[in-house]
Amino acid sequence: MTPIKVNGHFHTPYSFSAFNEIEQVFKMAGTEDVKVLGINDFYTTDGYEEFAKLAKKYEVYPLFNIEFMALQKDLQAKGVRVNDPNNPGRTYFSGKGLQYPVKMNADMVDRLFKVQDESNRQTAQMIEKLNELLDELNAGFSFSFESLKEKYAKNLVRERHIAKALREKVVEEFATIEEQKTFFTKVFSGKEPKSAMDDFAGLENEIRGNLLKSGGRAFVPEDDKAFLSLEQVVELIIHAGGIPCYPVLLDNPNGEFTDFEGDYQKLYESLVAKNVYSLELIPGRNNPEILEEFVKFFNEKGFVITFGTEHNTPKLDPITVFNGNGDNLSDDMQQIGYEGACVIAAHQSLISAGKEGYLDKNGVAKIKERIEFIELGDRVIRKTVIKQVV
After folding, report:
1. Can you tell me the distance from the alpha carbon of 376 to that of 20, in angstroms, rounded to the nearest whole number?
2. What one-character DSSP code corresponds to residue 21?
3. CA distances from residue 108 to 44, 100, 102, 113, 241 in whole angstroms, order as listed
4. Is residue 259 a contact partner of residue 80, using CB atoms and an 8 Å limit?
5. Edge-to-edge, what's the strand order for the sheet holding 90-96?
6. Which class for 235: exposed (0-12), middle (13-18), buried (19 or more C-beta within 10 A)?
7. CA distance 144 to 277
8. Which of 21, 31, 263, 337 makes a 20 to 30 Å CA pair with 367?
9. Checking phi first, is residue 361 left (phi over 0); if not, alpha (psi -120 to 50) or beta?
C-alpha cells in the first residue's frame, strides 16, 4: 500500500490558527500534494460544514476531529505533568473521526457549550485587565471582547487573538519601529522585546509570555470550570462518534519528557487502562530518532497513530508534516501515519452510515481488526482523491 500524504491535525480560525481562512489550508495542500486533511479545533465542530464543502471542492479526504483541554485532578494533586509541560494534571485530548453531520444529545451539547463559555469568560477578563494597563500607560486605545471576536475569531476568542490584536494596534498607532519598541517595553514593565517588530510570531509569543501568562499584568487564572474531566471528554467524544486519542508531547528541545510520557511502558499501561488506543504527534517539534523509537513501540502494540502540524501559532509553516530537523518523515513513519488515517477514515465512514466503527459497543478499540480497517480506509480515501493520486 503506497501511502498518501496526510496532515491529520491542524487548527483553523474557528479556534486559533496561522491560517486566515480554511480554504487557505486546501490551497496549500494542493500545492504540496497533501490529500488527507484533519480539522482539529478546540472545543468546537463549527468549522465542519465549511471544511466538508471545501474538501469536496478540492477532492481531499476530510477527517473530522476535535480537541479539548481536560483536567486530571488526581495527577494535578501529585504534581504529574501529562502533555502540558507547565501545568500538572492538565491534559490535551483529541477525538478522531467524529460523525458528520455531528449528532449530540442535549446534555453533550450543553457540556460543550459550557467549556466554550468558560473559555471566553476567561479571555474577556484578560481583555479587561489589558485595558486597565493601557489606560495607565495613556495608550489612547483599548479593546472589547466583541470587537476582537468580530475581527479575529469565529467562535472562541483565545489569548493568541489578544496578542495579535495588540501587535497590530501598536503598529497602527505608532509609525516608527523605535516608537513601537518603546511602547512594548512599557507594556512589558521595562523589558525590551527580543523579537523584531516584523517577526509577528515571535512578538506575539512575547506578548503572551509577558502579559497573558502567569505573572503577567493581564493574566487570569483558569477556573476548574473551564475543564472537563478526562472521563467526561472521552464520554463526549465517543457519544459524538469519535475515537479517543491522546496527543503526545514527547521530547522538548532539551530532550526532556513530562512525568507522564517519560516511560513508554508506563504510558502504554496508563492509556490502555483508560481504553485509549490512538495517538497523535506533531513530528516537527520532536527529535526524529526519538519519534521513530516511540512510534514503532506503540505501533507494534496495535495503536492507531497519526501525525499533524497543529498550526496553532501565528507562524505559517507548510501543511506537509516534517520531522524536527525539517526533513520529510521516513518511509516507515509515512506508512504508519497513513495507516492511522485509514483507520480513522474507515471509522468515520461507517459511523456516518449508521454502523459500528472502530470502537465496539463498550467503546473498546477493535485492535484485532486493525488491518481490515486500514484496508477499508485506504479504499475510502482513494475513492475521494483518485484523480490526483496514481
Report:
1. 34
2. S
3. 12, 16, 12, 9, 12
4. yes
5. 66-71, 90-96, 243-248, 278-281, 304-307
6. middle
7. 43
8. 263
9. alpha
